[in-house]
Specification:
mainly beta; porin activity; hydrolase activity; Imipenem/basic amino acid-specific outer membrane pore; hydrolase; EC 3.4.21.-
């Protein structure tokens, strides 16, 4: 597989640098400092989770929980610097990041939302921070980057759903030598979680006691995407996470323009996970397999007319266990029914979604949008408890300032109501989830 990865990239580089190639990105480089950028993103996040039916986050002596209520808020700052590339056949550059967060509210009795790490006494940290950097080289339209970075591959993706993002350490090469075709390949050796300040702070899959296994050792990834037409794209990706699993992904996306005001989009996503049976995995259904083999796919259709978009989606999971991810990044799940609380990826689960989006620009309020969706899942295989079922309802509204000194400042409110039946309650607890997120991106250089 590795020979195929690099031979494909070599082919793309060869084609792009032939006498028939157009001017490349490196040919147009203005220089290390001339093309540099420095960006800051300030984020405030408030998160409240009100668990029902006795669920909670802090155990009491003798059993049960002290509270089923989690609430905290904080402020974070993310600085990202990207240099340009030096001129010449091979360009050299540097990227750097610095980030930190400060707790505004939330004590030990309400912890557990994932905004902050805990100190040695079990209390949320008052502040956190980390820095990182990467070197990069560019030949024609192919870039090699080594060091700390953010990754958005469907088989290895750093999550940014809390105050600070996950950060991966490793090497990634991306090639765009052929028009419409993007190839990528990488090897990563560690992954720092959102509240982790170390480079390898994400634990592995849970053992029989619910404890995390060892963290990520190495993961190799490959990806290819191609625009067949302006309206039809496809993508393939694969990964090999040492000691865990191999994962394969496919995507097909087609948009049918109906007229200037209407369109229909069809989006298919599929995963296949293959892994060895492992003694340190939780056996989700009690049949002794303890494997990670899983097939997961979703198909969504979205009809847009003016300011309105209506989406329906169906998703299915099958195999030895539920779909596993996390050691390969908490954002590594590109399927239709992965929403605010649940991903609807239980063993043998079938789920359906209905969604509505509204863009208020057509009604004279540019920057204001609204979304609501409902997903229900059933047919979940459980540990002898019968058929598992779950459902979730989301409501979200966002407003982005369109002009003025605070242009691009955004305000976002998210609410989720999640419920599961008795057979599935041991896997996922009923909860109301409310979040308020304010972001201000600023381009300094």
């Amino acid at each position: 597989m590795r020979v195929m990865k690099w031979s494909m990239i070599a082919l793309a580089v060869s084609a792009g640098t032939s006498q028939f190639a157009m001017a490349s990105s490196q040919d147009e480089s203005k220089g290390f400092f001339e093309d540099q950028s420095l960006k800051a993103k300030t984020r405030f996040e408030y998160m409240n989770r009100d668990y029902k039916n006795g669920a909670g986050n802090i155990a009491k002596p003798g059993g049960g929980f002290k509270s089923g209520y989690r609430q905290d808020s904080g402020l974070s700052e993310l600085l990202t610097y990207e240099s340009g590339f030096t001129q010449g056949t091979v360009g050299f550059g540097l990227d750097a990041m610095a980030m930190g967060s400060v707790k505004l509210d939330g004590g030990s009795g309400r912890r557990g939302n994932g905004l902050f790490a805990n100190d040695s006494d079990g209390n949320p940290e008052q502040s956190q921070g980390k820095v990182g950097g990467a070197v990069k080289l560019r030949l024609s339209d192919t870039v090699l980057k080594h060091g700390q970075q953010f990754v958005a591959s469907p088989v290895f993706a750093t999550d940014d759903s809390r105050l600070l993002p996950e950060v991966a350490t490793g090497t990634l090469i991306t090639s765009k030598e052929i028009k419409g075709l993007e190839l990528s390949a990488g090897r990563f050796t560690s992954l720092s979680k959102q509240t982790g300040m170390g480079r390898d702070s994400i634990g592995g899959l849970a053992d029989e006691n619910g404890n995390g296994g060892k963290g990520l050792t190495n993961i190799n990834i490959f990806g290819a995407s191609y625009s067949f037409t302006d309206n039809f794209t496809g993508a393939l990706a694969a990964s090999d996470a040492d000691d865990y699993f191999k994962k394969y992904y496919v995507n097909l996306n087609y948009t049918l323009p109906i007229n200037d005001d209407q369109s229909l989009n069809i989006d298919f996503n599929g995963y296949k996970t293959k892994g060895e049976s492992r003694g340190d995995l939780v056996d989700a259904i009690g049949d002794g397999t303890q494997g990670v083999d899983n097939n997961l796919w979703s198909l969504a259709a979205a009809y847009s007319i003016g300011a309105h978009k209506f989406t329906i989606a169906h998703q299915r999971s099958s195999g030895d266990n539920a779909y596993y991810y996390g050691v390969d990044g908490n954002g590594t799940i590109f399927v239709a029914n992965s929403i605010q609380i649940s991903d609807f990826v239980g063993r043998d689960e079938r789920s359906w979604q209905a969604r509505y989006d509204l863009n208020m620009k057509s009604y004279g309020i540019p920057g204001l949008s609204f979304m609501t969706r409902y997903v229900m899942g059933d047919n979940i295989t459980t540990n002898g408890l019968g058929e598992g079922k779950e459902n979730e309802w989301n409501v979200e509204s966002k407003y982005v300032l369109q002009e003025g000194p605070a242009k691009d400042l955004s305000f976002r409110v998210r609410f989720a109501n999640y419920r599961s039946n008795g057979a599935y309650s041991g896997y996922s607890s009923d909860v109301y989830d409310t979040r308020v997120i304010v972001e201000y991106p600023l381009s300094i250089l």
